[in-house]
Amino acid sequence: MFGFGNKQKKAEKEQRLGAPLITYYEPKSMISEQYRTLRTNLEFAQVGNQVKSIAITSSMPMEGKSTTSANLAYTMAQTGRNVLIVDSDLRKPTVHRTFKLNNELGLTTLLANPELKFNQVVQKSKELGLYFLPSGPMPPNPAELIGSPQMARLMQELSDNFDMVIYDTPPVNSVTDAQIIASRVDGVILVVRQNLARKELVREAKQALENVKANILGFVINNVPFEEGKGYGYYAYGLEDDEA
Q1: CA 243 → CA 195, 203, 237, 239, distances in Å?
Q2: Average pLDDT in the 41-52 region?
Q3: Which of 36, 19, 51 minimizes the C-alpha distance to 234?
Q4: What angle do CA 173, 38, 122 make, to 5 degrees?
Q5: What is the rounded average pLDDT of the residues 201-206?
Q6: CA dihedral in degrees (99, 97, 43, 26; nearest 10)?
């Protein structure tokens, strides 16, 4: 169903269809190791705090937020935790393409039909050990749905039933959806792509998150080459204002 039988397939095919799931296809790569480092840093961030839900966003499109969401979710699931990835980018959803999911039912279905239970819509891959809530049909009013009381109740219910819920959200400077979700989760990761994101836009995104009192856990800096010229990212935790 999920199309993960051949691990020899290259991430470039995934990139055409969704975010590249590098941690699955190339688990021994340097990039995969960086995602495991990100997972470890998040575990340290949880010491003394209960972090059961994370929003992943960026300042602008094409910075790698969906790639980070997918690979972090898979990496966390490898530790035996029940991890759910929610596609809350209702304008440009990616999760169903990355994981080869049926997107006829999803987040918008649950929000439009409160009588439905989340476990009637959430999908699971035994092979990946992951749970998925794709976006569902594209609605005419994404911001209204994300900001609705139904969404707040659903987010609480999901946190109560999973060890970790990861929300792939739209870029924070583009629409208000990311700010709404950021205000309701336990922590936020801001993805920044080197040589693409402008410094002022990153500052604006950080300020927008702070305006809703979001708990910014740290930053993922993408497209940073390793010494051997391969790879594109690392995790930097707790950057100061002048570094953002």
Answers
A1: 15, 10, 11, 6
A2: 77
A3: 36
A4: 70
A5: 92
A6: 70
